[in-house]
Structure formats: structure tokens, C-alpha cells
Amino acid sequence: MVVTTTISDSDEHLHSTFASRYARTSLPKFKIPLGSMPKDAAYQIVKDELMLDGNPRLNLASFVTTWMEPECDKLIMASINKNYVDMDVYPVTTELQNRCVNMIAHLFNAPVGESETAVGVGTIGSSEAIMLAGLAFKRKWQAKRKAQGKPTDKPNIVTGANVQVCWEKFARYFEVELNEVKLKEGYYVMDPAKAVEMVDENTICVAAILGSTLTGEFEDVKLLNELLSKKNKETGWDTPIHVDAASGGFIAPFLHPELEWDFSLPLVKSINVSGHKYGLVYAGVGWVVWRSKEDLPDELVFHINYLGSDQPTFTLNFSKGSSQIIAQYYQFIRLGFEGYKDIMESCMENAKLLKQGITKTGKFDILSKDIGVPLVAFSLKDSSRYTVFQISESLRRFGWIVPAYTMPPDAEHVAVLRVVIREDFSHSLAERLVFDIEKVIKEMEDLPPRVSLESDHFTLDHKADEQHLRKKPKNADEGKKEICSYWRRISGKKTSSVC
Ligand SMILES: Cc1ncc(COP(=O)(O)O)c(C=O)c1O
Where in the sequence is N6-(pyridoxal phosphate)lysine found (predicted)? Predict the structure, then answer.
């Protein structure tokens, strides 16, 4: 790399220079360069390369917040240099975290008094929160089994096959067997009756999702609680429930306060929620709350002494930023219950508008439900000429990032597109997206079917795959299945690229 060091470091150059004036060869990729470079050069070089990233606001694949008020941005920048773990140095930040935990616990109907401290912790996201909740269940189960003189080497967890990948991670990292209830076409969430059937004496918990990642649908936690209570009575076990409310935790309390899914159900012992999804904070914050102290084994809690008082901590990592915790507290007091409710209502309205537009094209079946996370999941009625994957690719031309994926077992033959509606996705953007979807469909329909398959972004380098795709499907259903199975092969059996 050629770096011109004669160019001054002064701020004058910040807006008037371009990276090509500094770096004439490719940038360092493997080794830290020997010498330094002027700060304006480094800034411009990095900024220029980042231009090729997608636009976060048009990233409709993600639930994660992409816009916050400038006042909150200021608070974030002001605390960007605070390490959260230095609790004795930043006691106010710690206090803000504790206030957030209390507010979330009350929102989820935890049995704590008006001014009683709740049990929970801020995390990097729902994934870390789920690891912690899962570990607590595992330890509790092990302790009970040991006391009964029973083996503790085969813990399992029961979930739907629609769980987010973090549950698979938990199972693998912490050596717990993951027993998944299979889905079927037309039913894309965990069937509570089947889940309870799968529970045995080694089940550390059943995890229900409030807002399936794939379709946004809420699982029936109330029915699960009923059926599991019955089984617990019959067997003498006390299998608990965890609710993965990563996205639904900040939707249901505002839009469906009558829905019973939280600590109001006795078997629900812990709940996670992503602050960075509908908690309306930028990426990097999640929460886990336990029903009571008894549900979090004390051996998992580390006690840090700060300013003479005891600060219990239970997280996987040590250092982390403080900004997201501060931003979460800002959102809670800035928006209040009414503010969150307004935002969630407007997200739902935009989801409805988009759903109507997509339905009107006549080309799609809608898989998402009206009660759930504000998103629209839809599949092609007929995939014999083009696929959802091609639609997803083509929409990129307009800047839209709309993921396409196949469902988990046993509904792998169903391929869907999913648009997540966040606060910053407006009415007019919804109209514009429908317009672009119609345009893409029209273009594909104007192409002969074979050309539309070949025009995809990937190269057909396996002869078998090529022949497979060129075989004319007998009917629309067969076409859909063949195309999906082809996609699964080339994508290394990945079922989902969504978060
Ligand atoms: C249901 C569910 N659980 C867990 C996660 C992981 O959340 P996070 O990205 O906050 O770690 C997601 C992410 O989309 C999710 O949808």
C-alpha cells in the first residue's frame, strides 16, 4: 500500500480529500501495516469502503433498531467510553440497568412488589440472555437430580423446530440435547400438545417463543402452561417454561395486554427480550428476567463488591459498553407505556398495509398472523416460473434487503420472503415496496421460465443440479419442491438467514 504521508493531518482535509489520494494500492488485509497514516486518510479510506455495505434502514431482514432520536444518539456518544463492568466507577449506569430490569419485570407481571427489586440482568442480546436462562435451568435440574441420587448426564430441552439458532448454540455449547417439535405445512409454530408429549424426566425446560423468528406468530404459552401443569401433576416432575420473547416481549404488553404468556402463568420461570429489537435501542442490548430469586441458582451469580455494597453479576462476558443500557433507560422514560403502544400500533398498521398490497398482487399466500410481531411473511402461490429467492435478489436492485428462506423440518418445502416492520419503516415506504415487488414480478413473468432460472446470481456448476433444474416440473407444487431442495443443497442446508 502506498500512503502519502506528506498530506497534512489537519481537519481541513477531512471533507475535501478522497481515499484514492492516499492509498494507491490495495489496503492491508492480513498484517497490521508497519507505519501510521494521517487520521483524515484513515477516516476517508474506511468510510469509502463502508459505502458498499447495505443501507441499514432498508434492511428489512432485521428486527434490530436502525433509528433513534438524536438526543439519545448524544447520550450514546457521551457514554461510548464507559466500560459497563466498572460498576464502582459508574454506579449510576449500574443503577440505570437495575431500573430497566425492574421495569421489564413489572411489564411481564413478575410477582414483585411495587418497589421491590426484580431479578434479571442486561445482556448483549437475547442470545446471551438465553444462554444464561438455559444455564440456570440446567443447574437447577442437576441439583434436584443429584439430591434424588439420579443421573444428571442427559439433560434435554424441548422447543419447536422454529427456534432461532441461539437455542441450537445453547444446546451445543452447554451440552443439552435439543428436542424439537417438527412443524408442518400451514402450522409454523410449536404445537404445545406435542411439546408436552416430548417432555421427560431429563427435560430442563420447555422453551416457547413469543414471536417466531420465521413468521412472527406468538406460540400458545397459556395452553402449554395448562398441559405441562397437568403432566407435572401426573408425573411428579416440575418441568418449567422459558419464554423467548426476543421480539414479542415489547409488543404483546402494549398491543395485547389480555394475552396470557408471561409470569402471570405459574410455570413461566424466566423470560428474555431483545432491547435492540422492539425495545427500540441500537444493536447490543438484551434482557433476561427471572420470576424470583429461587429460579436463579446462587452458584451462577458472581458477587462483585462496589462502594462497599454487593453487586451481583451473572453474564457470560466481562467488559461491555454502557451506551445501550443508558439508551434503553432513555427510551423507557422518554416514550413511556403510551409511547411504546403508539409505535407498536403504527408498526402493525404498516404491516397491514404491506400485507394488503402483497395480497392484492394475487401471487402470494400470507403466512404471518394479525396477532404477532409486525412483519409480513409470504410465499409464492406458484414457484414454477420463478422463486422467492429470485424475488429477493431482484429487490436488491432497488436497495431493498428482503430475505428469502425455507422453513425448518417438516415444512422445508415451503419457501418464504419476510419483511420486518420497524418504527422507521413508513407508510410510504410500504407502498413503494409493494410497487417494486409488482415490478419485479412483472419482469420475471415477461421472461421465458428457463431464462428466469438462469438469470439467478449463482452459477450452475454441478451437472446434476443443472439437469435437475432443467427437468420441467410436472406441476406448480413439484416445481416449488424441486427449486427449494436445489436451494438447500447450494446453501449448505442453511434454513434461515434471518435474525
Ligand atoms: C425468537 C428469537 N430468539 C432469539 C433471537 C436472538 O436475538 P439476539 O439477536 O438479540 O441475540 C432472535 C433474533 O432474531 C429471535 O427472533
Answer: 277
Q: Which atom of ligand 1 is nearest to the CA of 245?
A: 1
Measured in Å, residue 129 CA sits from the centre of ligand 1 at 10
Q: What length is written for the chain? A: 499
Q: Which atom of ligand 1 is nearest to the CA of 129?
A: 11
Distance between CA atoms of 12 and 330, rounded to whole angstroms? 35
Domain 11-53 top-level CATH class: few secondary structures
Architecture of the domain spanning 74-332: 3-Layer(aba) Sandwich (3.40)
What global pTM score does this model have?
0.88
CA 479 distance to own-chain centroid: 31
Q: Which atom of ligand 1 is nearest the CA belonging to 274?
A: 10
C-alpha cell of 259? 394475552
Q: Which of 209, 246, 251, 188 is nearest to 377 (CA)?
A: 188
| Structural domain boundaries in the chain | 11-53, 74-332, 348-490
CATH number of 348-490: 3.90.1150.160
CB atoms within 10 A of CB 200: 13
Q: Identical fold at 74-332 and 348-490?
A: no
In angstroms, rounded to a whole number, what is the distance separating the alpha carbons of residues 212 and 189? Answer: 7
pLDDT tens across the length of the chain (499 residues): 545 444 444 444 444 455 566 676 788 899 999 999 989 889 988 998 999 998 999 999 999 999 999 999 999 999 999 999 888 899 999 999 999 999 999 999 999 998 889 999 999 999 999 999 999 999 999 999 999 999 999 999 999 999 999 999 999 999 999 999 999 999 999 999 999 999 999 999 999 999 999 999 999 999 999 999 999 999 999 999 999 999 999 999 999 999 999 999 999 999 999 999 999 999 999 999 999 999 999 999 988 776 566 777 899 988 999 999 999 999 999 999 999 999 999 999 999 999 999 999 999 999 999 999 999 999 999 999 999 999 999 999 999 999 999 999 999 999 999 999 999 999 999 999 999 999 999 999 988 764 544 444 333 333 344 444 444 445 555 555 555 555 455 444 444 456 6
